[in-house]
Every structure is written in structure tokens, then in C-alpha cells.
């Protein structure tokens, strides 16, 4: 007889868009700004609404974040702790909740914060949290997440294959599939007129430069968040 608790643990709990954003923020800041972690409510609000490393842009207030934190705590994905000066702070519990390690948590966090991405995008962007030396390392992390039932490919194998996490509620997941299908149909061109694919190394260099700029913006926004909290 199969242990039902093991089966339930293997299936990720769908999260709202707000809860996914908060979870992604908590994992991200634990890695990129450990001196400011665990996080205050005000710092989480600022990080959720920052302009860099976020897609889509969101405008969450304290009530939105508190509701998301309640959702995450009920799921076992976050904890509330007593900070210094009697200020409550929050930390994630993603390693225990989803059985993650450093490379898989970095990749999953990028998917939570930016939505579906290609392997090259994940490798470049996740490396700000954990160094993924090449596409093989990124593929290994993605494959582990797929094996855990946390990530799945949205498009067929090949150049530009896109991956997404599996924490979307069913209706949002269906919308995402329809959106990706529409995008694929719109970008399809006849074989004889299809432009040559850009050199992957050039694409990665451009993405790396953009992410360096976004990381600098992150640091500025983190400092502002500290002042506000």
C-alpha cells in the first residue's frame, strides 16, 4: 500500500501570483543580501515591487504581502520569526518544503520571479544566486526539478525551449499554455524565409550585461528598503 503522505508531498501546492512573488523574493534575498535576511514586512513589499528581475511588474501593499505570507505558512513554505526590536521577520522554508538544493533553488527562484524562460536565460540569470558554469549545469538543475515535479517544458525540445514551474493554479496554467501557443504561432515563418538563429554566446553575453545592470538596481533598491524598514 502506498503511503498517501508521500504522494501528497510529491505534488507541489499551487500558489497565487502574490504568494509566488513573495516566495521568490524570500529565496532570492536570502542568497543575494544575506545581511538583510530574514526580511521585515516593509522590505518584502519593496522587493516584490522592484523593477529589476521581475516579470510581470507588480504593485503589492502590506495587506497583499501578509495574505501571501499566510498562504505560504499554511503550505509550509515560509516561517515567521521574532526579529530584534520586536519586529517580526520572515524567512522561506523552500529547501524543506520542496526538497531543493542551491542550484535547483536558484533556477526555481528565477522562474518564480520572471516566469517561463529558456535554458540560456535561466543559466545566466540564476548565476547571480548560484554559479551555473555552463548550459550543462543549468540543464542538470532543470532536469532535477522536472524529476521532482516542480518544473516542466512548455515548448518542444530544441533551441529556445522554454521551461516553467508547476506552482501555477490550473486556470492560470491553462492561460499560460494558450499564451505560449499563440506566441509560437505568431513567430512561425516559412523555412526559406526564416532568419538565422542568433549566436547563443552573443545572446548570453547580452543577457549577462543586462543582469549586471539589474543587479546594481537591486542593490540600490535593497538599500532603499533598509531605510524604509
UniProtKB/TrEMBL annotation:
Domain of life: Bacteria
Xref: Pfam families: DUF480
Extent of Low complexity compositional bias: 186-199
Region of interest: Disordered: 181-200
Protein name in UniProt: Uncharacterized protein
Source organism of the structure: Crateriforma conspicua
Amino acid at each position: 500500500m502506498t503511503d498517501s503522505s508521500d504522494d501528497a508531498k510529491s505534488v507541489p501546492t499551487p500558489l497565487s501570483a502574490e504568494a509566488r512573488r513573495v516566495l521568490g523574493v524570500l529565496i532570492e534575498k536570502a542568497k543575494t543580501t544575506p545581511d538583510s535576511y530574514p526580511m521585515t514586512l516593509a522590505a518584502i513589499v519593496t522587493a516584490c515591487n522592484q523593477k529589476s528581475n521581475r516579470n510581470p511588474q507588480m504593485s503589492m501593499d502590506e495587506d497583499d504581502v501578509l495574505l501571501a505570507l499566510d498562504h505560504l505558512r499554511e503550505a509550509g513554505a515560509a516561517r515567521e520569526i521574532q526579529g530584534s526590536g520586536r519586529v517580526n521577520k520572515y524567512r522561506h522554508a523552500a529547501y524543506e518544503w520542496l526538497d531543493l538544493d542551491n542550484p535547483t533553488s536558484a533556477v526555481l527562484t528565477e522562474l518564480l520571479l520572471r516566469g517561463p524562460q529558456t535554458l540560456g536565460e535561466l543559466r545566466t540569470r540564476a548565476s547571480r544566486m548560484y554559479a551555473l558554469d555552463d548550459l550543462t549545469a543549468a540543464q542538470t538543475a532543470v532536469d532535477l526539478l522536472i524529476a521532482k515535479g516542480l518544473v516542466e517544458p512548455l515548448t518542444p525540445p530544441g533551441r529556445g525551449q522554454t521551461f516553467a514551474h508547476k506552482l501555477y493554479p490550473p486556470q492560470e496554467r491553462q492561460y499560460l499554455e494558450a499564451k505560449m501557443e499563440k506566441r509560437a504561432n505568431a513567430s512561425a515563418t516559412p523555412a526559406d524565409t526564416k532568419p538565422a538563429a542568433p549566436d547563443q554566446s552573443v545572446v548570453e553575453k547580452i543577457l549577462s550585461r543586462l543582469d549586471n545592470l539589474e543587479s546594481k538596481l537591486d542593490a540600490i533598491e535593497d538599500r532603499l528598503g533598509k531605510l524604509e524598514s
